[in-house]
Design brief:
This protein has about 150 residues and is α+β, with helices and mostly antiparallel strands. About 25% of the residues lie in helices and about 40% in strands. It has a six-stranded antiparallel sheet. A hairpin with a 2-residue loop joins β5 and β6.
């Protein structure tokens, strides 16, 4: 994993902290690097669907955040990021004690950035790939209320 400048880490951490939905889910930012982010989500009953697995919406949410914040690490100060599009493949049921979403930038552009995330179910310390996402993230600048 590559290091990010302290100002970039602080910017990403502050932006992540403003997301009330991540707090509702119980997700936390575990790593911020240059072009990469890791989000952890403890598995809890409120995240479940009818078969006892973590709901795909929670899986997609942490993957989307991992992609978007990975993109933000490479964007200029004073800009924000919005997801323009994503595709997720659910490869196995999300179960275990926790989920880890590892996002990284594939190609950073001035306006559009392509990122990907892998989501792992963690059981007894062992990781199993349960989802993959590709996302197109858009740089937002000059709009009131949208920065970082």
């Amino acid at each position: 994993m590559s290091a990010a400048e302290p100002a970039v880490v602080a910017r990403v951490e502050a932006s992540f902290a403003r997301q009330a939905f991540m707090a509702t889910l119980g997700a936390r930012l575990a790593h911020v690097g240059a072009g990469e982010v890791e989000v952890h989500l403890p598995v809890a009953a409120h995240l479940g669907q009818q078969h006892g697995f973590v709901h795909a919406g929670a899986v997609a949410t942490i993957a989307d955040n991992a992609c978007g914040f990975a993109a933000l690490t490479l964007m200029p100060p004073g800009t924000g990021v919005l997801t323009a599009e994503f595709k997720i493949n659910l490869l196995a049921p999300a179960t275990g004690e926790a989920l880890i979403a590892r996002g990284r930038v594939v190609k950073a552009g001035r306006t559009l950035t392509l990122a990907m995330a892998e989501v792992f179910s963690v059981s007894g310390g062992a990781e199993k790939l349960c989802a993959m996402m590709t996302a197109t993230c858009m740089t937002i600048a000059g709009r009131e209320g949208i920065a970082d």
